[in-house]
Amino acid sequence: MNATDVTGARTPEAAGVITGARERIDALDDRIIGLIQERAAVSAVIQEARISSGGRRVNLSREMEVLGRYREALGKPGTALAMTLLEMCRGRI
Ligand SMILES: O=C(O)C(=O)C[C@]1(C(=O)O)C=C[C@@H](O)C=C1
Known about the structure:
The radius of gyration is 19 Å and the shape is elongated. The N and C termini lie far apart (47 Å). The protein has 4 helices and no strands. By secondary structure, the protein is mainly α. The protein folds into 2 domains: 1-55; 58-93, no CATH class. The chain has helices at 3-7, 12-52, 60-74, 76-90. Helix 2 packs across helix 4 and helix 3 runs antiparallel to helix 4 (76-90). Prephenic acid (PRE) is lined by residues 43, 46-47, 58-59, 62-63, 66, 86, 89-90.
């Protein structure tokens, strides 16, 4: 299989552009995954502190704030992304 096959490009020039850009995407995805893992760890610290003080795991007014920030920055898909992030950080409610 040559470079044009794996990229879907029809010319070697386009295949080169795509291969380079995919490397950047992979590097960005690695960072995003790391940030998500870091976010989940920080979120766990908050939840543990709240629970061990007698509070509840979930704080809905804070979740509304988080959802609003993502929606403002990214539009409607931002809300879906934030909901997924929240679920990853505090489990299902
Ligand atoms: O900010 C908090 O109070 C958190 O517990 C963190 C967090 C979050 O991951 O953003 C997680 C659970 C809460 O329901 C609200 C927000």
